[in-house]
Fold each of these.
Amino acid sequence: MLEIKGLKADVDGTEILKGIDLAVPTGEVHAVMGPNGSGKSTLAYVLAGRDDYAVTGGSATFDGVDLLSLEPEARAAAGLFLAFQYPVELPGVGNANFLRTALNATRRARGEPELDAVQFLKLARAETRRLSVPDDMLKRNVNVGFSGGEKKRNEVLQMAILRPKLAILDETDSGLDIDALKIVAHGVNTLRGPDFSALVITHYQRLLDHIIPDRVHVLAGGRIVRSGGPELAHELEAHGYASVAAEAA
Amino acid sequence: MSGRGMSAAAQREARASLAQSFLARFEGLKARLPGDARAREAAALAFGERGLPGPRDEAWKYTNLRALAGMAFHEPFTVVAGCNGLLDRLPAIAAPRLVFVDGRLRQDLSRLPGTMRVSGFAQTPDFGTLVHPEREPLAALNTMLAQDGAMISVAEGVDAGTLVLASLAADVHGRPVAFHPRHRVRLARGARLTLIEISLGEGVYLHNPVSEVLVGQGAVLTHVRLQDEAPGAFHLATLYADIAARGTYDGFALNIGARIARTEIHARLGGENAVAHLNGAQLLGGTQHADFTSVVSHDAPSCTSRQTIKNVLSGKSRGVFQGRIEVARGAQKTDGYQMNQALLLSADAEIDSKPELEIYADDVKCSHGATVGALDADQIFYLRSRGVPEPEARALLVRAFLAEALDPIADETARTCLDEAVERWWERQAA
Amino acid sequence: MPAVAETLDTVQSVTQSAYKWGFETNVEMEFAPKGLNEDIIRLISDKKGEPDWLLEWRLKAFAAWQTMQEPHWAKVGYPRIDYQDLHYYAAPKRRAGPQRLEDVDPELLRMYEKLGIPLKERAILAGVEGAGLPGPIEGRADVAVDAVFDSVSVATTFRETLARAGVIFCPISEAVREHPELVRQYLGSVVPPADNFYAALNSAVFTDGSFVFIPRGVRCPMELSTYFRINARNTGQFERTLIVAEAGSAVSYLEGCTAPQRDENQLHAAVVELVALDDASIKYSTVQNWYPGDAEGRGGIYNFVTKRGACRGARSKISWTQVETGSAITWKYPSCVLQGEGSIGEFYSVAVTTNRQQADTGTKMIHIGANTRSTIVSKGISAGRSNNTYRGLVRVLPQARGARNHTQCDSLLIGEECGAHTVPYIESRNPTARVEHEATTSKIAEDHLFYCRQRGLSEEDAVNLIVNGFCKEVLKELPMEFAVEAQKLLAVSLEGSVG
C-alpha cells in the first residue's frame, strides 16, 4: 500500500507540492488528474527520488517502508516503477542489455537468482509478443531514434519485464495515438491483480476509458482537492478543472 | 621578394632585424611618448626577448610574418590633410564618429558624441589592465610604441547609441608606415553601446591596434568590425575583453582587406551569466591571408559563449581559424559553442583550422564543429536547372553560406554596412 | 599418471620451441652499463648478431637523436628524464620481480580478480619471481609457460597454419637474420629513424618486437591477437614492430592485454610501422593497460609511442583501434599516410584517465592520394584529477582530389577536478575535399543516471552502462573476444570515480 501524508516539495526554492495526502491500497489503480502546472509530474519524480526535488515535509511509505529515505535504485528494488513522461535516450546502450542489467539488479536486491542472457531473452521475447511490440525494439539502443509512441511502448515493455508492485505512469498517454494508447492500457491491465497497484497521472480522461481506475483524485495547486470514483473523470472532462477546483475551494 | 622560399634562418634574421628597428624607434621616441613609462619599458623588454612571432610559436603556427619582416616601416607624419578620398569611402552612417588617420585622432574629421565620454589616448593615456604584453608580442609592440587611440566610456545605465570608429591610412609619404593605436572601451553597469569600427587605407602600412574592452554588469556592447585595408597592408589587431556578470560582448569581425590580417581576441567571462559572441567572416582572394584567432575563458559559472566563423576563400588565399574555449575549474554550467566553416572556391586556396577545447569543470556543455569543402555541385546544378546562371548560382550559395554568421547581427546600421562590404568583395572578385 | 607425463612433455616441447621461436632472447644476459653512446649501440647490435647495415642504421639514428630535443608540446607534465641514467641493454625484470604474490600491490591483484584473470596468470602478469614455472628450466624464468600452457600448444598449431599460408610472424630480431631483404626494404620506411625524438631513440636502441609479413593475396588465416597476447610479454621498453601487407592481403593484429602489467621500466618508447600495398588491409588493435601509478601518481609507465601506417597501395586500408586505460603518461598518435588512390585510414580510440594519469593521444590523417577517406572517432573519459587530451591532425594536400574526412571526438568528465581537452588541427588545400569535425564535452547527464537508477541500477552500474554506451562505436571495432574484456576493463578502471 502506498501512503502519502502531508507531502511537501520544492523545486528551485518554489513550493510545488503543498501537502499531498493520498493512499493507494494494494491491488487498486488510482488516477491523479489535474491541470498543467498542478504538480502531477513533481509528485511522480518525488516518489521516484529525483535529485532536484527537495522534500520539505510529510512522508511517503510503500508497504510500510519509508520511500523518501531510499536511493532511486532501492525504490525500484522495492517494486516502484516510474513510466517517464519523457523517457531519456541512452546512446550506445542496447535495450536488451539495459533491461537485463536492471532486472538482475532488482532480482539481486530481492535475493532472487539472476537470469542469464538466454533466460532473459526468452522472457523478453514473450513480453514483446504479448504486448505486440516488434522484437527489434530489444536490439536498438534505449529510446535512441524512437518515435514518441515507441518510447512509451518501450516504457510499458520495461514495466512488463520488471514486474513492479507499484507503477506510476506519468502522463504516459501524452502524444499517443489510439493504438499506442491501447497498448499502454493493455500493459497496465494485464499487470492488475491483488499484488499490483498503480498511480496513473494524466491530464485527460481518455486513458481512463481503457484503464478503469478504482479511484480518481484531482490535484490542483499542489494539493489533492477532490477524490471520487471513476465517474469523477467524466465530470472533469465535461466541466473542466476550473469548476471542479472552484467547487472544492 | 615576398619571402616565400626564404630559409628559416633568413626569416629569423629578417624578423629580428625588423624587431630591432622597432626597438630602436622606441629608444628614440620614448622621452616624448605619453603615459606610463614603466609599462612601456616592460613591454619593450618583453618584445626584445620574444621578437616578432615566428612559425615555431604555436599561436602563430599558421600565420607567417615573413612578408612583414621583409619591410622597413617609417613613422607616419602626424598632421596632414588630404584624406578626403578615404572619408568618402566610409559608409554613410548618421552617428557620431571618431576618425583616425595613420593612427592619430583627427578632431577636425570627427563628430564627437554627446552620450559618452571620448578622448584621445595622446591626451589621457591609460594602458589599462587586461593587455598581456609578456604573452602576445604584437601587444608588446603596441604598448611600446602606442601614441594615440580612442578612450571611450559610457556611464552607468546610459544607452549611448552608435559610434563609428574609423581608422584610415592615408599613404601621404608613398612609403610604408607603421602605427599602433591603443583603444579602450569601458561600459559601466547597465550601459549600452554599438561600436562600428572600420579600417580602410591606401598603400603599404602596418596597422597594429590593441583594444581593451570592459563590459560592466548587465552592460551590452555590440562591436562590429569591418576590416577593408589596402591590398598591401598588414592588419594585426588584438582585443582583450572582460565581461562582468550578466554583461554581453556581441562581437562580429568581417575581414575582406589587407595582405595579411589577424584578428586576435581574448575574451574573459568573469561574472555569472556573462555572454560573449565572437562571430566573424573572412572573404579572401588573390594571395590574401587572414587569421581569426580567439580565446574565450569561462572563469565564472553559467556563462555562454557562441562563435560562428565563416571563411570564403578564392584565388590563392589562405584562411586561418584558431579558437580555444577554456573552462576554468568551478565554471560549472558553462555553455560554449563554436562553429567554423570554410568554402574553398579555387584549387589553390587553403584553410587551416584549429578549434580547441580546454576544460576543467565537469558540468559543462561545450562543443565545436568544423567543416571544409566546396560549393555543393548538386545545389549549383539544381539552381542552373531552374534557369539561374552559374555565377549567380554560386553567388547565391555563398551568400547563403555567409547568412548564418551575418544574420544574428540585429543592429540594422551595422548589418547594412557589412552587406555593402560583402557586395564590394563580390564586385572585386568579378573584376 | 599419463596426464603428468604428457604435461611434462608439452612443457619441454613448448620451452624448446619457445627458445627457437620465442619472443624473448636468451635471458642469460648481463646488464650493460647505464647510459647511451655508440659503444652501447654496438653492443646491442653485436649481441643480436646483426648485419652491418643495421648497425649503421642504428648509429645514424643515434647521431640524429643527439641533435634532437625532447618534445614538450603535449599537454603532459613529468619530471625531466635523464636518458643517460637508463640501462639500454639488460633483462632486469626477472631480478626486480616480487618474490611472492603476497608482495604485489594488492590493488593490482584486486583488479586482476575483477577482470577474471586466472590465479596463476595473475602472478605472471604481476612479474612474480618464478611464476609460471612448473619446474626449474634453465634460463626460462620469465617465460609464462604454465599460465599460457594450453594457449602455447595452440600457438604451435597456429604457427603451422600460418606457415602453410606463407605468413611470416616472428620476432623482428629473427626476421633480421631470416628475412633481411624484407626488413631492410621496409624498416624505417614509414617512421624514418629521425622522425621524432622518441622514434630516433627507439631506432638506435630497439631490442625486439614483432615482424609480420602477409604475402600477396593472402588473408591471414587467423587473428594474430591470441597468438601475440601469449607471446608478447616483456617485449622491453623499446619495442619495434613492422607489419607489411602485400597486395590484396589482409591481417588483423592485436597487441596488449587487458590485465595491468607491472613493469620496472618507466619509459616505454615503441615504434610501430605498417605498410599496406594495393588493396591490402591491416587492422591494428591495442589494449593498453600498463601500470598507471598509484592514486597519487607515484610510479607508472611513461608511454611515448610512435605508430604510423602507410597506405601505399591503391584502395589499401589501415585501421587503428585503441583502448587506452593504463600508463601514467600516454603520448601516442597512431597515424595514416594515405598515399594510394582511394585508400582508407581509420582511427577509433577510447582513452580513460583517472587519478593523476595524463593522456595526450589522437591521430594524424595525411591525405595525399585522390579520393582517400579517413574516419576518426575518439572517446575520452576523464575522472579523478587526470587530464585527457585529444590531439589530431587532418591534412589534405593539393593533389588529394575528392578526399573525405569525418572526425567525431567526444569527452566525458567525471568529477570536478579532471580536465578534458580537444586540440584538432585541420589543414585543407584541395577544394574538392570535404572535412568535417565535431567535438563535444559533457558530463554524464543527471536524467540519464536517474532513469537507470529508477530501473534499479546502482549509480556505479549506471555509470558503467552509460560509459560503455558512450564508447560503443569504438569497442565494436575490437576483435570480439577483446571487446568483452575491454568493457570490463572500462568498468574496473573507473571504479571509485563516481559519487
Amino acid sequence: MLLRASGQTHNRTYQLVAVTGAVEGDGGVPYGRRLVMFAEAVLGEDDVALARARDALMAAMGPPALVDAAGVVGLFNAIDRVADATGIPLEPEKAAASADFRAALDLDWFAVVDRS
Amino acid sequence: MVEFYASAFHPIRDDLSAAHARAWTRIARPGTWWDGNARVAIAAETRRASGCALCRRRKEALSPLAIEGSHDSLAQLPEIVVEVVHRVRTDPGRLGERWYRSVIARDLTEEQYVEIVSVVAHTVAIDTMARGLGLDAPPLPDPEPGLPSHYRPAGAKPGGAWVPWVEPAYAGAAEAGIYPNERPPANIMKAMSLVPEEVRSFFDLVTHQYLPGAVMRDFSREYRAISHAQIELLAARVSALNRCLY
C-alpha cells in the first residue's frame, strides 16, 4: 500500500504486480528487478544465486544501498512472522484501500490457504 | 561503525549496528516471562529450526499437521516451546488459530507465547540481514542472571488478534510510549502489546532497520540509501514470499 502511496506522491505509476515476482523489468521502480531478485535470493536457499544477486545490487546501487536493502528484507521477514503468529487482522482502512490490488494480484488467497 | 559489526565487509550505519547490539543485550537479559537463559536458548533454537527435517517435511506437505514426528532441537527448551519456535521460523504463512489454541492448551501461557514470538522475530530480523550481506550470523550473547518480571498489562483484553492486546485507551503508565501519540497504532504495533517490553524492543529494530514511524509516509524526502518506493517494493516482495497478507 505504501508503494502505491509513494508513487501517487511522485506522480508515478508502479507496476504493483512486481511484488509477485511476475515482472521481468523494474516495475517502474528504479532497480526494481535487482531488488526483487535480491529479496528472493535472501529468502531462498541457493547461496550462489544470493551471491550473484548481492553483487548485482551492489554494483548498481553501492554498498550503503545494499546494507539498507538487506536490513529491510530482514526486518520484513521478521514482521511477517509477528503478524502471522499473533493472528492480527488487516486494519479496515488498509483493507479497503488495498482491496483492488489484492484482488488484481490474487493476494487474498494468503488468508485462506490451509492454516492449521 | 560500532563493535557489533566491526568485522563487516560492508560499512553498516552506526545507528543500525547499535540497534542490533541493543537487541542482543535485551535478549540476554531476563524478559517478562522468560529468563535470560531461556531467551538466548529461544534465539539459538530459531537458528536450529532452519535445518530441522520435520519442519522441512511439513513445509513440503499439503497440510503441516498431517506430518508427525519430533523436531531436531537443541534440547534446551520444553517440547512445546520448540514447536512454537520452529513453526514460526519455518512456516509462518500457514500458522492458524487452531494451532495457536492447541499450543496454548499445552502448558504455555499467552504471555509466554508472545515473548517467544518476539525473540524469534528479533533473531530472524538480524540473521536475515546478515545472510543478505554475506556475513556470518552474529554470535548469540551470553545470558544474564535474574528473574523475569511477570508483568501483565491490566488493560490487555481479547481484541481482533488471536492473542490479547492492549488498546491505546487501556494502556497504563507502564505501557507509556509503546504507541505513537499522533495517530492510532497499526495492528502490528498492538500484536505483542501483551508483553509491552517486547513492543519497545522490536520497534527499536523497526526504526533503525526500516524507518521511524514518523517518516514512513513522508514521501517528500528520502531517509535511507534506497528510496521509499524501493523500500516498499522489497517489503511487499518479502511479504508475498512469506504468504503474509498483512
Amino acid sequence: MHTGQVLAVQQSGEIPSEYLTFTLASESYGIDILKVQEIRGYDCVTRIANTPAFIKGVINLRGVIVPIVDLRIKFNVGEATYHEFTVVIIINVVGKVVGIVVDGVSDVVALPAQSIKPAPEFGAALDTRYITGLGTLNDEMLILVDIEKLIGSEELQIMDTTEKSQGEAAI
Amino acid sequence: MTSDGIDLRRFDQVFFEECAEHLAEMEQILISLGDREPDHEQLNAIFRAAHSIKGGAGIFGFDDMTLVTHVMESLLDLLRNNEIPFARGMIDLFLEAGDVISMQLAGHSEGKPVRQEAVDLVRGKLQQVIETGAGKGRRLPEGPAPEPSPAEKGCEEPPLPSRYRLTFTPDPEIFSRGIRVESIISELSGLALPGAFQCSAALLELPELEGFDPERCITKWQFTLDSPAGREQILDVFMFVADEEQLCIEELPKRHAMLVCLPDLAAPPAGSPPHQVEPDPPGRRAYDGNEMAPGAFGRRGGEAQSSIRVNVAKVDQLINQVGELLITQAMLAQLSVGLDPILHEALQKSLAQLERNTRDLQGSVMSIRLVPISIVFNRFPRMVRELAAKLGKMVELKTGGDSTELDRGLIEKIADPLSHLVRNALDHGLENPAARAARGKGPTGTLQLKASQVGGRIVIDVIDDGAGLNRDRILAKAQERGIACSDSMSDEEVWPLIFAPGFSTAEEVTDISGRGVGMDVVLKNVHSIGGRVQIASEPGRGARITISLPLTLAILEGLSVAVGAEKFIIPLNVIIESLQPRPDQLKSVNGRQVIQVRGDYLPILRLHQLFNLETEVLAPERGILVLVELDGDRAAIMVDALLDEQQVVVKSIETNYRKVEGSAGATILGDGRVALILDVTELFMMQKKI
C-alpha cells in the first residue's frame, strides 16, 4: 500500500479496532483487545471475607495477586457455575490487573469505526454508562464495553476509593 | 554517538542523586567541625562537593544552582588560600547555603516550590563575607600562590614562571559530555603570564565529507604558556576533562625563547589577552592540588567506588522473581513428598540441593536492599546542633552501630519516628546546664543513638542522660485526659501511657515538641512496619527508648493455619503460644466466650466468624487457639488446625485490589494458592465491631 493510501484510510477512521468478544447469558459483548492480557481457566481462587458476592477472591497469577470478578453475578445474568470450561479474562487497565469471569470467550473481531452505532439508553444487562456503542457482526449485535470505566467504577469496589496506603504493603 | 545527539534529561536523575550525596557529605563535614576551624583537608572536601554540584548543575543546565554554588565556591576558595580568615558564622552560612541548594534541587527534581528570596539572601550573605573578608587573610608564604588575580600580580613578586607545553588530545566524544574547549583555553590563558600564551590546533584525521560528524572531536591542541602556576594547577584546568593519556605536559627549560613554539597550523589567535578583567563567570576554574587522584585528574579515582547505582524497581523485580522461584521450589518439594525415597533418591537429593540454593539466592538478593542505618543517623548531628542552640542546652550526640543494615523501605519509614524521639529527648529529656549542675551532672548532656542486630531483628536505642520520665506528671496528665490509669501501676505500665493520642506532658508547647502529636505517631509508624517500642527510664538518670524492627518487610516468618477450606498466615512475632483448650478453661463474659490462661482471661477471636467462613470446627475445645499479643493487647485466635511454620514472601493485595480488612497482605503457598496474612491489630478492631 502506498503511503498516501494509508494516510487516507487513517483520516477517514477506517482502521478497524479489534475486539475480544465474550458472552454473558445470551448477549455478546466486546472489549478492546489491547486491554486484554490473557485468558485462562478458573481455579484456585482464594476467597476474601466480607466482600460482595461478585468478588470471587484472588488468584496467584505467576506471583501477582489478582482479584477475580464474576460479571455474571454482578449483572445478574446467566448461571454462576464453575467448571473446567469456565473462562477468566485477565484485563490490564488503569494500572491494575483484574480477572473477569464470563460465560465464554468467542472470537477476536475487527470492527471498522463506521459500523459502530451509539448505544440506546437501555437494553443490556450492563449499565449504559459502561457501553461505548453497539457493533454489528454477521447480523449479530455486539455490545462494546468500556472495560476501563467498568473496572475503575466504584460499583465494582476494586479500587481503593481512599487511595491511601498505595504500595505501602508492597514489600 | 548518533547525529540526533543525546538527551541529557535521561541523566538528570543521576545528577539529582549525586548532588544529594554531595550535599550530605558537605553537611556531614560542616557538622563534624562543631565550632572548630576546618583544616585544609576538610575545606578541600567541602570545596570538592560544592564544585561537583556546580559542575553538574552547569552541565545539566540548572543555572540557578550554579549561581549559589559559585559564590559558595569562591568563598571556600578564598578560605583555602587563607585570603579570608575563618569565622564561626561561616559554618552556619554554609549550612544555610546547603539548604538553599537542596531546596533548588528539590525544585528541579520534584517540582517543589523554591523560595527565591532565600536563595538571594544566602547569595548576598556569601557575597558580603567575601567582600568584607577579602584582603584580611593571613597569607602564608609557603605553597604556590593559587590563581592570583591579575591585579594582584602587579604588586606582588610572582614566583619564577615556568614554561609548559601541553598537548591535549581529547576523547572524540568530548563534546557530547558537554565540555567546551573554549573555556579550557581561556582558563589556561588566565594562568599564563601576560602575552605568554600560545595555542595551536591540529586535525588528527580528515574524515570524508559524508561521514563527517560535527559532534566528534577530531582536533588536537597544543598550548605553550609561561606561568607562575604549579603543574598541578594546570592539571586541574583539565579536571573532569581529560584522562592522563589524553594530556601531556612538558615543562620546558626556563627562559626559553618565546617564539620557539610556533603554531603547526594556522592557529586561532593565540588565546585571549589574559589581562582582560572579566567578571568571574560561573564556569570552570583552576583549583589547587589535593584533587589529584590516581587514575584521572580530579576524579574520585582513589577511593575506588565498588558499588553501582541500580534502580530500586529493578531490585524489587529481582526480589519478586526470587520469591517466585521460592514458591516453585516449594511446589516441587510438595510434589516429591509422595514419591518413594528409594526409587527417587537422586531426585530428592537434587530437590534438597535446589532448596539450599534458592535459600542462599534469596538471602543474597534480600541483602541488596539492605542499607546502613547511618543514612538516617547522619541527619541527626545537624538537628541536634540546631535544636540544642535553640533550647540553650549543651548536647553531645553519640552514634553507634552506624553500619547496621536494614531494609531500604524500613529506613525511609524509621526516619520520622526517630527524629521525633530525638527531638523529644532534647526538649523534654535533657536539662539545661544549670539544672544539670544542680543535680551534680556535667553541663553537657549526652544523647546516644545505637543500632544493632539482635537475632532476626534490628534494635535501635535512643538513650539520653537527662531527667528521665516523670511518673507523677504522666499519671496526672493521663487522668486529666481521661486515660485509664491508677497510682498503683508499675513503671512498665505507666511509661506506655505517653503513647496515647494527644498526650503531652510538656509544661509549655514549644515549636520543637510538646504539641502532643508525637509519641502516638511514633508508635503508629513503628507498628506499621512491624516494629515495637519499649521505654525504660530512671528519674534523674535518663531514659532509653528502644525500637525493634524486623530485618525486612518482604519476608515474614509465619504460622500457617487452616480454617475450613482456607489457609491463613499468622505472623510469628505476635504469637505467644498455641493450645487446645480444656472445657473448664472456657468462660463466658457478657455472652462472649473468653479463655482463662494462667489467670488471664483472653477474648476468643473466631476466624471463621470474622471472615464468614464455613467450617466444622465451631467449639473452641475442638479447634486450636493461637494466643497472640500486640501492644499489650492479647487475644486467642481460634482456628481449625495448625499447619506449618514457614517463611513467606509478602505480596501486596493492593497492587491490583483494594485493602482487605484484617489482612496485612497475602502470600503464595507451596501449592500455588493465595493465602492471606493476618493483621492482628485489625482483627482486634473487627472483633470489637461484632
Amino acid sequence: MYKYVARRLLLSIPVLFLSSLIIFGLMRVMPGDALTALMGESGNVGPKELEKLRKDLGLDQPYYKQYLIWAWQMVSLNPGYSIFTNEPIEVALKKSIPVTLELAALAMILGLCIAIPVGVLSAIRQDRASDYTGRILAISGLSMPDFWLGTLVITFAAIWFRWMPPLGYASLWEHPWTNLQQFLLPAAVLGFRLSAATMRMTRSTLLEVLREDYVRTAWAKGLGERIIIYKHALKNALIPVITLVGGQFGTLLAGTVIVETIFALPGMGRLTVEAILFRDYPIVQTNVMLVAITLVTLNLLVDLTYAWLDPRIRYQ
Amino acid sequence: MAIATAPGRTFDEHVVVEVRRGRALWTVIKRKPLGMASAALILLLVLTAIFADVLAPYDPLAAQPEIRLAAPSWAHPFGTDDIGRDVFSRVIYGSRISLWVGLLAVGIGTLAGTIIGLVCGYWEGRLDMILQRVMDALMTLPGLILALAIVSVLKPSTTNAMLAIAVVIIPGNSRIVRGAVLSAKQNRFVEAAQAIGCRDLRIIATHILPNVTAPILIIASIWLGNAILIEASLSYLGVGTQPPTPSWGLMLSSTGRAFMEQAPWLAIFPGLAISLAVFGFNLFGDTLRDAWDPKLRNRA
C-alpha cells in the first residue's frame, strides 16, 4: 500500500505542475493587470510611477522568471503578498479558509443527512410514490441554481419571518450562536444541492447491491430488513457514494463562491473571484493551487477508503 | 471482394443500431412518466426559443418607466422590472440564450472531448499519457473558476461564456470516451478490421465510433443542463451575457437581487425558468441512460 501511495503522489506532481502552468498562463494573458485595476480606483498615476510599481512587484520580469519565483514561493510555503491590498496572502487565507471549510463541512453534513435516508428509502420502495417523490426532489435539487435558491431563502425569510442572517462575519469560537445563524441558511442551500447527486447515487448503487447473491442469502437466513439494508447492503453500496462525496467536498472549497457572495461570507471562493476580477495574480494562483492540491489529496484519500469499506480491495 | 462488401454491411448495421436505439428511447419515454415529462419540457423550451418573437407579448427591451416594478397581472403575467420591461417577454427571449449557449457549448465540448478520447484510447502510448495528464490538470481546477478565468481572458460575452463552458466540458468527456474506446477496441471485429489492413481512421470511424456514441450522447444530454446552469452563474457574476440582452442569470443578478424584497417576481420567474430547463435536460439524460445503457435499464 505504501508503494501505491508513493506512486500516486509521484503521479500527482506532473498534474499539479500542469495545473499551475494553466492558471499562471491564464492569469498572464488576461487583458489588463492588477496595477491597471488598482490605479483605476485611486485616480491618475503617471507612467513613471506605474513603471516603478510594476518593477517593485516583479511584474516587469519575463513570464518564466515570474513563474519560477511563484513556484518557489509555493514550495517554500510562503505565497507572498496580495498586489491589491498588500496583505500577506497567508493572512488572507487564514481568514477565508475557516469560513469556507465550515460552510463546506456544514453543507456536507446537512446534505448527507438528507441524501442517505432518502436514497435508501427510494431504493427499497422502488417505483412507488415515495421513490418518485425522492427522485423528483433529487433532480429538482440538481436543477435549481444555488444563487436562485439563496436569493429566495433570504427573501422569504425576510418577508415571512422578518428575519435576516446577521451581517458581517462572526467567528465560530467567539460567537457560536451568531455564527450558526449566519451559516445555517447558506449551508442548507448548498447541502440541498449536494444531497441531490448523493441521493441518486445511493439509490442506484443500493438497488444494484440489493440484487446480489449475498443479500438474497441474508433474506433466506431470515435476517431482519433493517440489518440486511444497513449492515449488509448499504456498506457496500457506499463505495461510489464516497467517491462522489469526496469529489463534492473538493469542489465545494471553490464552488461556494456564489453562496458566499449572496450571504456576504468572506470565504475562499469569494476571495478568488474578487481576485480574478481585480487581476490579483498571487491570490488567484495560490487559491487555485490550494484547491487543486486538496482535490488531488482527497481523490487519494477516497481511493484509500475503498480498502476499509471493501476488504477485498488491495492496493499494489 | 470481402473488402468491397464490408462498407455496405457496416452501414446497414449502423442503421439497425440507430433504429434500435430510437425504439428503445421511445419505449422508455412511453413507459416512464418522468421520461415523458422531460421530453415535453425540452420540446416546450425549444418551441419557446424558436417562436419567441410570436409568443412574447412585448418587446423584451422596451422600457415603460410608468409601470416599473408592477406586480404580476393579466397584462404582465410575470410583472415588470425596475425600468418597466415585461418580465414574461424577457423570460421567453432568455430561453434563446440558454438553449443557444447550452447546445453550442456542449456541442463544441463534446466534439473536442470525443476527438481527444478517440485519439488517446485508440493509439494510447506517449500522446495518450501527455493528453490525459493535461486533462487531469484541467479537472483539478474548479469548473466555475476556470470558466470565469477563461471569460476574463476573452472578454465577457455570451459567445465567450459558451467557449469557456466548452473547455470545462472537455476533460470529463474525453475521459469517458477514452474508457469506452479502450473497451470497444477489445472487440474481435476491430482485430479483424486491423488484420485485413483497414486504415486506423477508417476503423475509428466505422467500427469504434458507432460503439461509443451511446455514452457520448448520454453525457452530452446531462451536460446540457449543467451548461445552462454555468452560463446563468457566469451571467450572475457579470461575466456572461451582457445587458440589455435578456438572460435568465443576468435577470436574477441585476434586478432580482436588488429588488428581491420589493418585487420578488423579478427573482422567482427567471430562476424558475432556469430550474425547469435544467430539470428537463437532467431528466432526459436519465431517460437516455435508461434506454441505452443495458446495465442500468432495469434499475432506474
